[in-house]
Structures are given as C-alpha cells and as structure tokens.
Amino acid sequence: MGIASEVFGDALPVAERYAEFLAGAGVERGLIGPREADRLWERHLINCAVAAEAIPVGATVVDIGSGAGLPGLVLAIVRPDLAVTLLEPLLRRTTFLHEAVELLGLTNVEVRRGRAEESARDLSADVATARAVAPLERLVTWALPLLRPGGELLALKGERAAVELDEARPVLQRFGVRTAELLQVGQGKVEPPTTLVRVVADRTPRRAPRSRKRSS
Hints:
Elements: H1 2-8, H2 12-28, H3 40-49, E1 60-64, H4 72-78, E2 83-88, H5 91-104, E3 109-113, E4 125-131, H6 136-143, E5 147-157, H7 161-167, H8 169-175, E6 179-185, E7 194-200
Parallel strand pairs: 1-2, 1-4, 2-3, 4-5
Antiparallel strand pairs: 5-7, 6-7
Family: Belongs to the methyltransferase superfamily. RNA methyltransferase RsmG family.
Function: Specifically methylates the N7 position of a guanine in 16S rRNA.
Pfam family, one: GidB
C-alpha cells in the first residue's frame, strides 16, 4: 500500500472504497474476474492511475468502453481536476458505474450509456482513454471523432502495443493524425510500467473515413 499511497495521495481512502466495491459487487456481477480480486491494486488501480501522468491539467476526458471504470473512474479519483465521461453501452455496467460514482461521492464524473461510434455528434473531449476495449486499428476509428482538434487518444496496451501501433498505421494515415507513439508511465511505481499508445488528432475536425461507393 506504500506505492498506492504515493500514487493516490489524499484520494487513497476513495480508491480503497472503490477497490472494495470492485472486489465485491464487481466480481458478483461479472465485471471483474474472481482471480482479479487479490491483485486489484497493482494490476488494475495503480496500473490505470499512473496514466494520469500523460493527461494535461483540467482536461475533459471520455473513457471509451468504461466497463467497471478502468481506467476512467480511477483517473477521476486520482485527478479531481479532470472532467470525466464514462462511456459504456451495456446497461448492467452503466448501472454499476452510477452506483460507484454515488458511493464514492465523485462530482467530476458523468456516466453515459452509448457507443463511441454513435456519440460523436454531441460529445467532444480533450482526451479519450480506453483499456482492453478493441485492437488499436478499430479503436482509433471510434476515438478520434470524439476528440477536439489537437486532442489525444491514450490507449492502455500490453506487450503487443508496438505491433498494434504498426498494424494501425494505415488507419492513422487516413485520419491524418499528427503523431502516434508509445509512452511508458509509472516508472518505479508499477512493474512493468504501464504502456500507452498516444495518438494526437489533427488540428482540424475529422470524421471517420468512409469507404467510397462504386458508381454503377
């Protein structure tokens, strides 16, 4: 818990209540596997919290496919300056998220039921986050339309991060992104460090590329 205290600081009691809720209701409702309950801190909470190192102060964040709130709810706990929208299509998960937000007393979080690809009309953020949602080449088509010009996608990825980034290059080129790179955060706090794929959107608004229709 020494590292947890360092990472969460004054927000540690809130993080502890969230961990208890995950280990209880989260497991009971199938949002977290039973084997994960004993390793929630290092594998999930701290792993997600250190991603805050890459997010600017006061940013608006949309967490795509938020599930049990990883990483979006954790980021809202550790960074009260962020305005976080938890975007999740499944009712049972949004119900869990609403209960968690109320339990934790968080005022910087909005829970929204919906799919990313259907939300670009009325949702815009500085940063989009995602963890274990989809391969990067598919994720960028959902995330980039949700970003303001110059906004960033921060995708938490595992050991295949470099491979996924390479596979997504054609999609990134079609979107005309400014940069796409790998970042490691949480050095000395979590082992291995958390790997992020950081994709910076173009300065002009972009919509998902559409395939051309053949003329008859």
